[in-house]
Amino acid sequence: MFELPKLKYAYNSLEPYIDEMTMTIHHTKHHQAYIDNANKAIAGTPFDGKPVEELLKNLNAIPESIRNAVRNHGGGHYNHTLFWEMMGPGKGGSPSGELGGAINEKFGSFDKFVEQFSDSAAKRFGSGWAWLVSNNGSLEIMSTANQDNPISEGKTPLLGIDVWEHAYYLRYMNKRADYVKNWWNVVDWAYSESLFKK
Ligand code: MN3
Predict the structure, then answer these.
(1) What is the whole-number distance in angstroms between the Cα of residue 106 and the centre of ligand 1?
(2) Residue 153 shares a structural domain with residue 106
(3) How far is the CA of 125 from the centre of ligand 1 (A)?
(4) Where among 32, 51, 85 does a domain terminate?
(5) Ligand 1: distance of its center to the CA of 87 in Å?
(6) Which domain holds residue 70?
(7) 76 and 119 assigned to the same domain
(8) How far is the CA of 105 from the centre of ligand 1 (A)?
């Protein structure tokens, strides 16, 4: 059984970049719904009790009858769990340490990285996510549709942004680019750095 993780910060603490109503509904309704549906799919199967990462890393091991439910709802649970950890109040700025160095090396500069990542987030057609991932130690920017996660392609997510409309529509309406631009102010680089070091 998957359970809704508690947030380490208050729903209003990412204001003005992400509004309290969006955070509240996103966490208590959207994330909860992914969990409820994932639990329904795996109830009474040998997959109940396994970490969601394990299921998503090897979707082909999941019987076809529940594979899509695990992919979509289990993926939704995993993605949102990461997303909450990747943000925080009073964050933003740029990464220092090993991750900062690796970003400069791969993308030329932090600003160039932000530009490419934001572009990937803007161009994701429909619902999905943009990611900074480690592919066997090499940094890459990618995006995934729906609730897919890079982990299913053997890549390790280091930073991700939810670009489903439910993540921004109340405050930003159709202006996804403005949401992405403001989102950089709440990115918790220390968390991404900790994922990179693993
Ligand atoms: Mn979402």
Answers:
(1) 28
(2) yes
(3) 15
(4) 85
(5) 13
(6) 20-85
(7) no
(8) 31
106 with 73, same domain?
no
Question: What is the number of domains present in the chain?
Answer: 2
Q: Could you give the CA distance from residue 154 to residue 164 in angstroms, rounded to a whole number?
A: 23
On whether the CB atoms of residues 69 and 37 are closer than 8 A, the answer is: yes
Residue 6 lies in a domain: no
Q: What is the pLDDT of residues 81-122, one digit of tens each?
A: 999 999 999 999 999 899 999 999 999 999 999 999 999 999
Q: Are residues 111 and 74 in the same domain?
A: no
Residue type at 60?
A: N
In a domain, 4, yes or no: no
Helices 110-123 and 176-183, packing angle to 10 deg:
150
Q: Is residue 73 predicted with pLDDT exceeding 90?
A: yes
pLDDT per position as a tens digit, 129-170: 999 999 999 999 999 999 999 999 999 999 999 999 999 999
CA gyration radius, the chain: 16
pTM value > 0.85: yes
Domain at 191, CATH number = 3.55.40.20
How many angstroms is it from 166 CA to the middle of ligand 1? 6
Using the mean position of ligand 1's atoms as its centre, give its distance from the Cα of residue 154 in Å. Answer: 22
Q: What is the pLDDT of residue 198?
A: 84
State CA 74 to chain mean position distance.
13
Alpha-carbon distance 25 to 50, whole Å? 27
- Please report whether residue 45 resides in a domain: yes
pLDDT band at 62 (very low <50, low <70, confident <90, very high): very high
How close is the Cα of 62 to the center of ligand 1, in Å? 24
